[in-house]
Design goal:
Shape: elongated
Radius of gyration: 30 Å
Number of strands: 26
Strand order of the largest sheet: 7-4-6-5-9-8
Structural class: alpha/beta
Strand content: 25-35%
Number of domains: 4
Distance between the termini: 20 Å
CATH architecture of the largest domain: 3-Layer(aba) Sandwich
Helix content: 10-25%
Number of helices: 8
Amino acid sequence: MSELSCTPTLDGLLSYEAAVDQLVGAAKPIVERQTVGLREALGRVIAESLVSSIDVPGWDYSAMDGYAVRASDCAVSGTRLPVSQRLPAGVSPLPLEAGTAARIFTGAPIPSGADAVVMQEVCTESGDGVRIDAAVQAGGNIRRRGEDISAGSGLIDPGTRLLPQHLGLAASVGVAALEVCRRPRVALFASGDELLMPGEALAPGKIYNSNLFTATGLLQALGCDVVELGIVQDSLEATKAALKRGAAQADLVLASGGVSVGEEDHVKPAVEALGSLDMWKIAIRPGKPVAFGHIGGTPFIGSPGNPVSLFVTFLLFVRPFLLRLQGRADWRLQPLRATADFDWPRPDKRREFQRARLEFNAAGEPRLTVHPSRSSGVLSSVTWANGLVVIPEGRKIQCGDEVEFLPFNEMLT
């Protein structure tokens, strides 16, 4: 990563890299394990290596429908052989008699004595025999035992998030259940006297609590169990009480709002009163006020209350922390390179992660456009976008420049 690797900072603000490193370094992987069946294992993180106890396939088998033969019996085209047995998949064959052929179907075991399969397209059945209209070479159209997997080979490494193909691989070696890491438990609340839950009547000065649902969805997408603490009033005592409840129940307490320095922002002093505040303010836009600390032994992360800032800082900071809790090694973001279809003439002193959309132009070339609003209150911008464009500190962007792009679909797994 070229531009993401530079680490200039503003006075008193942590660089993006330093903040991520601090968070990931403080994440202690969960050691508790659970055994789950394959049907429940999708999206879980495997806790120990999966090693095969068998060969796959467990025998030599036919790669196609045709006839199993001895190649020495079919040295010339036009050879006629009697058919001695019929072998669909799932049967146990008899040894192949010399000078005969076995009708065989895809997946069926190769009978002992046979060393080739002739595809049915070059064969002509005649009564109880077959004419083979091709010269046959030994080994043709046979899949060998252990060709896919050999007994004793490692299949899935610890810390891997299980995808559908992993479940199929486990099933292919007869494994019905897997040892996985316990899901992280995250206690979540949103601060603000102005917040209402969807479905309540909207009153003057009130807004609906979108952050609770955005954060819950993000947590669930990353395989977490959510302990919902609801809306917390803008008071120091209410904030302290919520933090204590969350710390007693969860592996991480996550709060939105109340982390700035206003008179009604109580999260920072509440964390400091109950434990320690280890990180605050990062040199990025949006989302400068990101708090990290501990309440007793429980980690705490506080994000800004603006909905876009919550979304962006979750992806940049909460995500890698949670992935490390799960023991995953793939927590680093891997940006794509793309061509800017926009100008950015007024750079910020902070690194910017702006909402962007990667699309193909009329010539079929991938191009990036940015949302017209830089406001962190425009939540619709993160549904319009399909990722974030990275704009380094102090850099102007001109249309046609190469830039880094972080796609949402890569950050929500």
